[in-house]
Amino acid sequence: TILNDPNHRLREAYLRCSLAIRILLRTTLDPFVYSTVFSSVRCPVSMDAGTLINVFSQTFSVDPAPRKQAEEYLKQAALQSGYTTSVLTLVAQADVPEQVRLAAAVNIKNQVKFHWVASEEDGSVSGPDFVIPDAEKATVKQNIVGVMLAAPPLVQAQVSETLALISASDFPTSWTTLLPELVARLNSAGQDYGVINGVLSTANIIFKRYRNAFRSDALYTELNYVFTELVTPMKELLKRTSGAIALNPPPEVAKQLLICIRLICRVFYSLHSHDLPEPFEDTLAEWMAEFHNYLNYENDALKETDMEKESVVDMVKTAICENINLYIEKFEEEFESYLGTFVQDVWSLLMKVGLTANTDRLAATAIRFLTTVCKSVHSKLFGEEATLKNIVESIVIPNLQIREEDEELFDMNHVEYIRRDIEGSDSDTRRRMACELVKGLTAKFPEFITTAVSGHVSSLLAVYATDPVNNWKAKDCAIYLVVALTVRGATTAKGATTVNSFVNVGEFFAAHIQPEVMTPAGQGSAFLKADALKFITTFRSQIPKDMFVAMLPNVVGLLAHESSVVHSYAAHCIERMLMVKDAGQPRFVSADLAPVLTQLLTNLFGAFTLGDSAENEYLMKCLMRVVSFMGPEIKVFATQCQTQIVNMLVEVAKNPRNPAYNHYLFETVAGLVKHSCQNDPNQCTQFEGLLFPPFQHILEMDVTEFAPYVFQILSQLLEIRPLPLPAAYMALFPPLLSPVLWERSGNVPALVRLLQAYLQKAHSAIIQGNHLPAILGVFQKLAASKNHDHEGFYVLNTLVEFLDPAALAPFMAGIWGLLFTRLQGSKTPKFVRSLTVFIGLFASKHGVNALEESIAKVQPGLFMQLLQGVVLGALTTVHGDMEKKICAVGFGKVLCTHPALLANGPVWGKTLEALVVMLERPEPEGGDDLDAEVDEAPGYTAAYAQLHHSSKVESDPIVEVKDPKQFLCSQLAQVSAQQPLSPVIKTLPQEVQQALMGYCQLAGVAIQ
User: Fold this and answer.
1) Which element (helix H / strand E) includes 495?
2) Helix or strand or coil: residue 927?
3) Which of 76, 324, 510, 752 has the fewest CB atoms in 10 Å of its CB?
4) pTM for this model (two decimals)
5) Does residue 434 contact residue 403 with C-beta atoms inside 8 Å?
6) Percentage of residues in the chain with pLDDT exceeding 90?
């Protein structure tokens, strides 16, 4: 009634109160009561235009209170039917402030992202997902193209992305009108290139997904549909636009026309991502003629005066270079007749392209095309010595030279400089592509290119020698040339793996690289020191151990260099070197690092205070690696390290910005806890004193990015520390059951592990505090989720393992009922496998009689049905040594003590066969190489980011059984003394019988 009242202020007051009450209930209701109630009852909110405009305006407020209230309002409104169309209508209104329209456009994009398609789960942790109703979807799809084309550019870009998100799930099957509407808009737009470019921008975003799509019949069917509808109109548009450009229109008109040409080229690229489409193949000469014309097109009126801004002409040429590069890579035969023309075009282009920053993309893309041609069977195009010499002198050397822009980047933005320069970057820069061209030429013409490039290296080094202070750029270029000439194969993990046999790496290193590192940090060029460190890192597998150990104090000294690039490269060099292995064994041992460890840690922590390196991920990764590398020997420095890291943690929690840095930070904390406390659990108290205050702050301030890390380290401490638990742990326990924490999928694995640790260490206190119903509420929510059901079983298994059976018995009928309901309604292989392991654990811990009796409370005789209908098929899929052991012991007991099963020979035999097959099945390959696992930080995603130094140590719930195979045959031997089993065993497959004989020989028993 209030919502329909004409009094706007009354409606607003009601809405504010309802939201405040809901927030209050979220924090005060018994755990999971809130989520149970509000999963089906949602607070209605007003969605009239005036209210929405006001709410979106409040999202810009600098005052966090109204901003948070507005965000909560939109969050609740998003769960109502009609919200999406209401916001889309708001976006379409020209009289609404553009800032509000933009916020609404971003909001509707997120609405589509999260609520257009039902979650793959039947039930999420926080309750059922809201999905936009089909009727509302139809309205959105009917209007969104028109809204997008009429919107201002910034708003149009957001709506276009929303359209692409919808098309990813609905196009073309459930949105058959989209492509015809886009084509109709193209054909009816006339000379309105605002509309034309809007349509092409949308098509570009939609079709980009084809570039990385997996090949399938469905994909090719969809592509053929697109080809049929789009290729002819797009070709006609290309011709029409090219004709308009040929008339030399005014610059602003020409710019819009060329934007159209570029978008056509980008769509062209996406549609060729898999095969050469027949409609394009039939008209290939026309397309190539247009590409040739635009590679040679010039228009001085469209040149940019801003040397940082790429001109539209260069953008078109870049797009064409990408297209012809795609053709030489994928459609070499069809492209062969045009190749000579385009090589000449690109060559001429590179002769004219300047060295300014706004031509970087064009230069890099053009060089990449020549590199691709060079690596192909058409390398003979470059076979003449004069041509090769010209390439080196006119293309390679100029594009390797350091520029003022690079110097500014080095000094002012070390993050971007390193991203472009360091190994493993996927950034196509001039320097990187020039190096790739050298590598390609060296592979085809090794002797000549080595000789030619070596001559340039010598000349550059001679120039440097005449004036080292002012001519350092010559040596910088020489080092890049040597790296490009020498590296024939490389990986991120190992650096250079194969090298050019015509180049003496050791000689160059000793003469020109080592001196740069050995000179004090304050002397010499910072650029050359960075180059030297990068050279060492690249050739770390080739540099002898004793040579690096001798340089190590100097490399450690460079951690104190004032240049952020230099101390980052020094940290990167040390971190990578500690990972080097020879014949599978680490090259370096802790004794190699021990003499410089104090200075290394001092310089590492000091480097965080230099320049803008407060959140330098290379420094933190190096610190993490040092802690991991030293192992228990780091314990001497643990308190010193942890104190400084806690201060850094408090600071970064105020505004988490760098996911990699933050991950390595928590990984370092976990490493210090592991190596200090695992062998001396009494150290936990000291770490808890340091870590609890910042952890409490993180949880109180709801720093969502850090919560999973905090839960993991708390679990680690709780698992290691001796009893009794401090009161602080038990004070923390009730809030852990808060529904808000479990709503975030990324929290769930860490919270489950923490809950398990509590059940292991404080099960008595949990029972006394009457927390078991709430814990079972957690299990109920997890079990309903296809993504998290296995974690629900982790909780259930821990309850069975550590709780008194009498405490759990009153709840077992309800637990079985939940499991069987899920089994009947939406079972998955993972759920069935987890259920099978749980049944095996229950039988192992509480006995077969207790198992059958608890299941019988749901339905008498259900156990045998479950065994035959579910367990027998799932046993052979169980993997993991501990899971196999649990099933072997549990179902071994079932085999030997269940009267009805013993009386049913065929089912008994199938159960035994399934157990043996499970035990004999080899485990999937893959180890737990910690160093490999923490090589790259995962960044912030909705997924769980595991700390590998905090990995859970697997416990054995049936430690009294040493060998499951021997246990199984021993049990069978005892039963066979009373009831012969060999007649049934002889009916089993031969390989099963042989495996059983092997078990008996190990156990020294015989089955009668």
Assistant:
1) strand 495-499
2) coil
3) 510
4) 0.85
5) no
6) 71
Token output for 278: 């027949």
**Most distant pair of Cα atoms in the chain: their distance:** 102
> Residues 740-757: what's their mean pLDDT?
91
Q: Which residues are paired to 487 by β-bridges?
A: 499
Distance of CA 112 to the CA centre of its chain: 22
As given in the structure block, the two tokens for residue 602 are 């001092």
Kindly list the distances between the CA atom of residue 417 and the CA atoms of 403, 420, 512, 606, in Å, as whole numbers in the listed order: 12, 5, 23, 22
* 313 touches 302 (CB < 8 A): yes
Residue type, 282: D
pLDDT of residue 120: 53
What is the H or E stretch that residue 582 is in? strand 581-582
Measured CA to CA, the distance from residue 219 to residue 967 in angstroms comes to: 53
Quick one: 354 exposed, middle or buried, by C-beta within 10 A (0-12, 13-18, 19+)? exposed
- Residue 219's closest CA among 277, 283, 161? 277
Residue 780: CA count within 13 A, CB half-sphere: 20
Per DSSP, 81 falls in state T
pLDDT of residue 17: 62
User: What's the 3-state SS for 639-656?
Assistant: HHHHHHHHHHHHHHCCCC
The answer to whether 561 and 414 have CB atoms below 8 angstroms apart is no
At 631 the pLDDT is 92
In angstroms, how far is CA 904 from the centroid of its own chain?
51
Which H, E and C letters describe 782-809, residue by residue?
Answer: HHCCCCCHHHHHHHHHHHHHHCCHHHHH
Q: What is the pLDDT of residues 424-468, one digit of tens each?
A: 555 678 999 999 999 999 999 999 999 999 999 999 999 999 999
* Residue type present at position 110: N
Torsion, CA 109, CA 114, CA 120, CA 121, rounded to 10? 180
What per-residue confidence (pLDDT) applies to 1003? 84
Unique residue bearing structure tokens 């190990």 = 1002
As a whole number, mean pLDDT of residues 545-566 equals: 95
- Distance between CA atoms of 708 and 420, rounded to whole angstroms? 31
Residue 134: both structure tokens together: 């089909």
- Interatomic CA distance for residues 370 and 365, integer angstroms: 9
User: Is 122 within 8 Å of 826 (Cβ atoms)?
Assistant: yes
Distances (CA, A) of 344 to 371, 382, 800: 14, 11, 75
Residue 310's pLDDT is 94
d(CA 700, CA 816): 37
Helix axes 284-295, 312-330, angle to 10 degrees: 140
Distance CA 702, CA 868 (A): 48
Token digits for 140? 């959105």
**Calpha distance 816→399 (Å, rounded):** 69
Contacts of 669 (CB under 8 A, 6+ apart): 642, 645, 649, 691, 713
Confidence of residue 565 (pLDDT cuts 50, 70, 90): very high
DSSP 3-state assignment of 737?
Answer: coil
Helix (H, G, I), strand (E, B) or coil at 490: strand
Which alpha helices (H) appear in 247-311, and where do they start and end?
Answer: 251-271, 278-282, 284-295
Place of tokens 């509707």: 108
Cα-trace Rg, the chain: 34
User: Tokens 């010039």 sit at which residue?
Assistant: 298
Could you read off the pLDDT of 676-716 as tens digits, one per residue?
998 888 889 999 999 999 999 999 888 989 999 999 999 99
Q: How many CB atoms lie within 10 A of CB 554?
A: 18
Query: What average pLDDT does this structure show over 910-935?
Result: 72
pLDDT at 33: 44
Express each pLDDT in 234-281 by its tens digit: 999 999 999 999 999 999 999 999 999 999 999 999 999 999 989 999
Q: What does pLDDT average to over the chain?
A: 89
Element (H, E) at 491: strand 487-491
